Amino acid sequence: MTSLRFRSAGVDDAEQVALLHADSWRRHYRGAYADSFLDGDIEGDRRSVWAARLAVPGDADTILAEDDGELVGFVHVAFDDDPRWGSLVDNLHVFHRRRRAGVGTQLLGRAARAVTERATGNAMYLWVLQQNTDAQQFYRASGADCVETATVPPPGGDPSRLHGTPQCLRMAWYDASRLIKSV
């Protein structure tokens, strides 16, 4: 773990971020997202999203975790997204073989640090699929509270990309500075 390096993503990172994002969705979103969507050109879908997002980052940051130059995880945070809940951790994905090795914890801590440095308040939140109980446990262990349940919005606004009406949970940290620790 000592060889991990963290940096903000640039437009040249869109391809690798998209591939990791697509792989993570295929592994963890099956049952909530339609198989036809997950088994289709999800890489192309995520590539266009990340190319646009990283070309004009706006009031957000995408932080990459790399090991010997290879992407092993990333977190994307949108600052001051919600007046009540604060900054949105819109994505947190770790390469499957690197899960449970501390990468996610370090990425979450770096997102929290970015929030305390760049947002107007210290509150931070994210949405997690109700079926993703491993992620929920991780967020609860890091101090998040489940504050709301909602219907999952369809990716790209296309309802055919969902399987039924899956639910998601809003997990919130009232003070992100508690996540910083020693990152």
Characterise the protein shown here.
The protein has five helices and seven strands, in the order βαααβββαβαββ. The protein has 183 residues and is α+β, with helices and mostly antiparallel strands. It has one domain (4-179): Aminopeptidase, CATH 3.40.630. The chain has a seven-stranded mixed beta sheet with strand order 1-2-3-4-5-7-6, sandwiched between helices. Helix 4 links the parallel strand 4 (86-94) and strand 5. The longest helix has 16 residues, at 103-118. The two termini are 13 Å apart.
Essential attributes:
single chain, 183 residues, Aminopeptidase, 5 helices, 30% strand
The unreliable regions are none
The helix content, as a percent range, equals 25-40%
CATH class: Alpha Beta
CATH architectural type: 3-Layer(aba) Sandwich
CATH topology: Aminopeptidase
Instruction: Report the end-to-end length measured between terminal Cα atoms.
Output: 13 Å
Question: Within the largest sheet, what's the order of strands?
Answer: 1-2-3-4-5-7-6
- When the domains are counted, the total is 1
Largest sheet: 7 strands, mixed
What class do helices, strands and sheet pairing give? alpha+beta
Question: What is the gyration radius calculated from CA atoms?
Answer: 16 Å
Quantity of strands, as a count: 7
- Give the rounded overall mean pLDDT: 93
What is the tally of helical segments?
Answer: 5
Organism: Kribbella caucasensis
GO molecular function: acyltransferase activity, transferring groups other than amino-acyl groups
Domain N-acetyltransferase: 4-176
Pfam families: Acetyltransf_1
